[in-house]
Amino acid sequence: MSGPTGLVVEGLRKGFGGRTVVDGVSFTLPPGGSLGIVGESGCGKTTTARMLVGLERADGGTVHLDGVDRSMRPRGRAGRLERARGIQLVFQDPYVSLDPRIPVGACIEEVRRLHFPLDRADRRHRVAELLDQVGLGEREAAELPRRLSGGQRQRVAIARALAAEPKVLILDEAVAALDVSIQAQILDLLAGIRRASGVAFLFVSHDLAVVRHLTEEVAVLRGGRVVETGPTVRVLTEPQHPYTRLLLDSVPRRGWDPGRIAAGRRAPA
Amino acid sequence: MSAVLTPAVRRPLLRRLRPLGNGPLFTVAVLVLGVLVLVAALAPLIAPYDPEALDLRSSLVGSSADHLLGTDQSGRDVLSRLLYGARTGLLGPLLVVGLSTAGGLLLGTVAGWRGGWADAVLSRLMDLVFSVPGLLVAIMFVAVAGPGLTAPVIAMAVAYTPYVGRLVHGLARQEKARPYLESYRVQGWSGWTICVRHLLPNIAPTVLAQSAINFGYALMDLAALSFLGFGVQPPAADWGAMINDGESALQQGATMPALAPSVCIVLAVVAFGIVGEGIADRLARRER
Amino acid sequence: MTPALLEIDGLSVRLPAARAARPILDGVSLSVAAGETVGLVGESGSGKSVACRSVLGLLPQGAGAEGQVRVGGRDVLTLDRTALRELRSRKVAMVFQDPRAAVDPLHRIGDFLTEGLRAAGVPADRATARAAELLDAVGIEDPRAAMRRRPHEFSGGMLQRVVIAAALAGEPDLLIADEPTTALDVTTQAEVIAVLTRLQAERGTGLLFVTHDLELAAAVCDRIHVMYAGRIVETRATDELFARPRHPYTAGLLACTPRIDPGAPPPRPVPGRPLSLAEAPAGCAFAARCAFAEPRCSAETPALRPHGDGLAACLRADEGILA
């Protein structure tokens, strides 16, 4: 092993049909750390996440995880599996991220079977453990996804991602589709999982308030570029970049004056 | 949290089928197809006469207690020929639909999932086959291989493959972009496994609906080939060939030998159409 | 006090027996006066969308309703088709969540804006001038050019401005906004809210603002109704609601909303999941998730009663449990 540990992304680029969506994004996520990638729609945050897990191919730049280069497409089964054990992803909408035909317990068991074929004896035990870790029991395990609520499905999706025992878990707007009271449950759950397992989080979100409570570092993206990066507390209390300030001012709260923000935005343009 | 959870109980088959109900028309169509299959299976037991037994003395007898639907020009019992005709009538389309569905699934999935050059090549190939009229290809096949069931079935199977292939191609592309299939890619499964285990079962109902509709069309096309003399050869009982035979009887005032198989073809085609549309409707409703 | 533009009075809605007779709303009452902004806040299944749509006479197909929904003193639920059309074109306008679904994608923006005016008998040139004025008012530059463009040429935020302009075209007394910014980015949300509240203040329009976001409601509304499982559980002036909530659900929502302010505590989850009225057991629908529930909470359905300066539907609202 060589180079620094953790996830190191350098100069990641991606374009679609001549339009650059991700334009030289770089960041570092230490082992067990938690990094927020914040921005509005079209800023390239989701495309970045998809490149990290291999759902899109980068046009340029490098991705290293614990010194191992992930920029090339993996060759063969072993490469594919090793790559999958590096980074896992939880999608935004739990209503479409689970195979509707497969009971959720079996859905997690599949992952264990793929990645740890030799632990047949305690596979069931591990599946139960994973489900328990996300607050689900045997009864839910036997159900098809459609019989579970949105929050329960997102718990399944998290357990499934953890089943591969990844070093990095990417959460792509993973609480955005949930009711507020459920959102808090999932955030709480995620914080607990990070403490217990030491998995690193890459938290992709548009919601600064959510990022504030779950990350140590944050990178603000706009138009495919990182405009500001630093410790979350610092960035959210003393933003340096005008765009970060605009984002912060735009978060609704009591005594909020949207008129001023709108006026402030038009002035520099 | 417990309100949505009820134990998954295996429902009896009939109750599982009931939500398929798209009104009485759908039920009637299913019944018609059921009777058809039953008749085809039991033809030797229920047919009153040998369908190929000639009896020139009782040519073109009207309907009577002996011959419910009368006889044709060669004195063969029309009812018996009709019942036996259901066998080739269903076997041919079954083979066509089976082969074209298999071919379409393979080509469509590979093109839709792989994308890139594989997509370009396979899609152009399917367009090419699509643009050639199936009946014409079938007639060419027969010219080379001789008449019978085999040549038309192979030709029609080739001609129908793009219908399924294009559908599957679209479905595969659409499903590939859905997070549930993407999640399998992120987990490290091979494309082949994802397609066989997760993609195909999820698109199967839609493909099934299309296949049911294709079944009716294939039945009609094969009957047309038999009618033209390229398909199943006399004296074997076949609806299309029976209409051809019955044509000369029509000139002598006997309608039944041509009318009876025509009615059977129309009934079967319409019934398959309704069932196919019914399944498609239901899927559309479930999507919502 | 000015007479209320909108009074919803004891509205109960139930789906028909043919479709498993499900109750959706139970005894919902609220009012909006001219120039007032009233929030209707709730999670999924709370019935907030059904309640606000009833103001336009839009109930789920075949649903049975009890109670009254009065706009300008007339009960919407008893209006015939002509009167409903009159109501929708003159008195009440609605802004939906997804602007793309609210605009015909094939028509030019100008046609979309003027068709209502033309139908009301305004001559073409006057209607065009009025539409341009409205687009200018919602902050769209070069309105004449914008009117020649089609919906796909607009961003979501810009299109929602167009929808707001169209809603204001008939100079309605009352505007219903059902999650108008949920589909938009935060910065765009701020702009659209700025436009909406400015125009509402200028014109003295009453606004019923429906959202799942308590913080957003707090920023926009004078008074907030919190809904849970088809019922209103708390009604209070915004500052009061935030400072001294009386219903444990309101308190729970406040505590579980992640806050951006420095030093704000991490969100505290409420156990369980939000229910709809059909799933709710007897008694208080929130009892199963409530940290303060007593045995009587699952036996007796609490009525919405005055507590402090507002209303709360909790048997223990006077016991100071949330202090």
From TrEMBL, chain A:
<comment type="similarity">
    <text>Belongs to the ABC transporter superfamily.</text>
</comment>
<dbReference type="InterPro" id="IPR050319">
    <property type="entry name" value="ABC_transp_ATP-bind"/>
</dbReference>
<dbReference type="Pfam" id="PF08352">
    <property type="entry name" value="oligo_HPY"/>
</dbReference>
<dbReference type="GO" id="GO:0055085">
    <property type="term" value="P:transmembrane transport"/>
</dbReference>
<dbReference type="InterPro" id="IPR013563">
    <property type="entry name" value="Oligopep_ABC_C"/>
</dbReference>
<dbReference type="Pfam" id="PF00005">
    <property type="entry name" value="ABC_tran"/>
</dbReference>
<dbReference type="InterPro" id="IPR003593">
    <property type="entry name" value="AAA+_ATPase"/>
</dbReference>
<protein>
    <submittedName>
        <fullName>ABC transporter ATP-binding protein</fullName>
    </submittedName>
</protein>
<dbReference type="InterPro" id="IPR017871">
    <property type="entry name" value="ABC_transporter-like_CS"/>
</dbReference>
<keyword id="KW-0067">ATP-binding</keyword>
<dbReference type="GO" id="GO:0016887">
    <property type="term" value="F:ATP hydrolysis activity"/>
</dbReference>
<keyword id="KW-0813">Transport</keyword>
<dbReference type="GO" id="GO:0015833">
    <property type="term" value="P:peptide transport"/>
</dbReference>
<dbReference type="GO" id="GO:0005524">
    <property type="term" value="F:ATP binding"/>
</dbReference>
<feature type="domain" description="ABC transporter">
    <location>
        <begin position="7"/>
        <end position="248"/>
    </location>
</feature>
TrEMBL record, chain B:
<feature type="domain" description="ABC transmembrane type-1">
    <location>
        <begin position="90"/>
        <end position="276"/>
    </location>
</feature>
<dbReference type="Pfam" id="PF00528">
    <property type="entry name" value="BPD_transp_1"/>
</dbReference>
<feature type="transmembrane region" description="Helical">
    <location>
        <begin position="149"/>
        <end position="168"/>
    </location>
</feature>
<dbReference type="InterPro" id="IPR000515">
    <property type="entry name" value="MetI-like"/>
</dbReference>
<feature type="transmembrane region" description="Helical">
    <location>
        <begin position="212"/>
        <end position="232"/>
    </location>
</feature>
<dbReference type="InterPro" id="IPR050366">
    <property type="entry name" value="BP-dependent_transpt_permease"/>
</dbReference>
<protein>
    <submittedName>
        <fullName>ABC transporter permease</fullName>
    </submittedName>
</protein>
<dbReference type="Pfam" id="PF12911">
    <property type="entry name" value="OppC_N"/>
</dbReference>
<keyword id="KW-0812">Transmembrane</keyword>
<dbReference type="InterPro" id="IPR035906">
    <property type="entry name" value="MetI-like_sf"/>
</dbReference>
<feature type="transmembrane region" description="Helical">
    <location>
        <begin position="125"/>
        <end position="143"/>
    </location>
</feature>
<keyword id="KW-1133">Transmembrane helix</keyword>
<comment type="similarity">
    <text>Belongs to the binding-protein-dependent transport system permease family.</text>
</comment>
<dbReference type="GO" id="GO:0055085">
    <property type="term" value="P:transmembrane transport"/>
</dbReference>
<feature type="transmembrane region" description="Helical">
    <location>
        <begin position="258"/>
        <end position="280"/>
    </location>
</feature>
TrEMBL record, chain C:
<dbReference type="InterPro" id="IPR013563">
    <property type="entry name" value="Oligopep_ABC_C"/>
</dbReference>
<protein>
    <submittedName>
        <fullName>ABC transporter ATP-binding protein</fullName>
    </submittedName>
</protein>
<dbReference type="GO" id="GO:0005886">
    <property type="term" value="C:plasma membrane"/>
</dbReference>
<dbReference type="Pfam" id="PF00005">
    <property type="entry name" value="ABC_tran"/>
</dbReference>
<dbReference type="Pfam" id="PF08352">
    <property type="entry name" value="oligo_HPY"/>
</dbReference>
<feature type="domain" description="ABC transporter">
    <location>
        <begin position="6"/>
        <end position="254"/>
    </location>
</feature>
<dbReference type="InterPro" id="IPR017871">
    <property type="entry name" value="ABC_transporter-like_CS"/>
</dbReference>
<dbReference type="InterPro" id="IPR003593">
    <property type="entry name" value="AAA+_ATPase"/>
</dbReference>
<dbReference type="InterPro" id="IPR050388">
    <property type="entry name" value="ABC_Ni/Peptide_Import"/>
</dbReference>
<dbReference type="InterPro" id="IPR027417">
    <property type="entry name" value="P-loop_NTPase"/>
</dbReference>
<comment type="similarity">
    <text>Belongs to the ABC transporter superfamily.</text>
</comment>
<keyword id="KW-0472">Membrane</keyword>
<dbReference type="GO" id="GO:0015833">
    <property type="term" value="P:peptide transport"/>
</dbReference>
<keyword id="KW-1003">Cell membrane</keyword>
<keyword id="KW-0813">Transport</keyword>
